Amino acid sequence: MSLHVIDHPLVQHKLGLLREAGISTKSFRELANELGSLLTYEATQDFALEPHTIAGWDGATVQVQRLKGKKVTVVPILRAGIGMLDGVLGLIPSAKVSVVGLYRDEATLEPVAYFEKLAGELTQRTALVIDPMLATGGTMIATLDMLKQKGCSDIRVLVLVAAPEGVEKVTSAHPNIPIYTAALDDHLNEHGYIVPGLGDAGDKIFGTR
Ligand SMILES: O=P(O)(O)OC[C@H]1O[C@H](OP(=O)(O)OP(=O)(O)O)[C@H](O)[C@@H]1O
Ligand SMILES: O=c1cc[nH]c(=O)[nH]1
Ligand SMILES: [Mg+2]
Predict the structure, then answer these.
(1) Is the Cβ atom of 137 under 6 angstroms away from ligand 1?
(2) What is catalysed by this protein (predicted)?
């Protein structure tokens, strides 16, 4: 199973702040983006580099390294995934954005798809799928199924908090897709919410409810 729980002190400190009851919309947004950046840093450790020659500050040539023609698409899952997008793009500003919209039916907990606008050349791109919450895993599996069906083969999942039930389901359906998360939490409650979790991440990011 390719689950990466990032235990870096900055990640764990920011996650702790995010869990506070009564956190402001402003703080939640800032922290979600900061954690999005930190997870991106971890999820891109294997990106290839190539040597490159430049003119340095004194006119002498300098051998530097640059990313080797990596095409990336960031895939925020509406709505809540938007809350991590700026953080990811801060580190990979040239990435194309493929937006998918799914919500979880509150009664059945099944994902309902309502929007899809994908970047081109998906077969050549690394996809970073972002969503703060991986709960039952239904939303993530539907997104990964869709990306694979469009020919995307290098896919990585970035979530702020994951439930064991959802991780099990996603890794069973897609064993080769790594999941990067700040926390593997305890369980899902009877409404499918992650415990201890964050509450409704979409509502906290958008200030709704
Ligand atoms: O793993 P699952 O059980 O499928 O649940 C996780 C999904 O639920 C939340 O979205 P929600 O349906 O609340 O939509 P929103 O982003 O519009 O708030 C969350 O952001 C995930 O997309
Ligand atoms: O805990 C959860 C589960 C699904 N969606 C959320 O926003 N939070
Ligand atoms: Mg929501």
Answers:
(1) yes
(2) UMP + diphosphate = 5-phospho-alpha-D-ribose 1-diphosphate + uracil
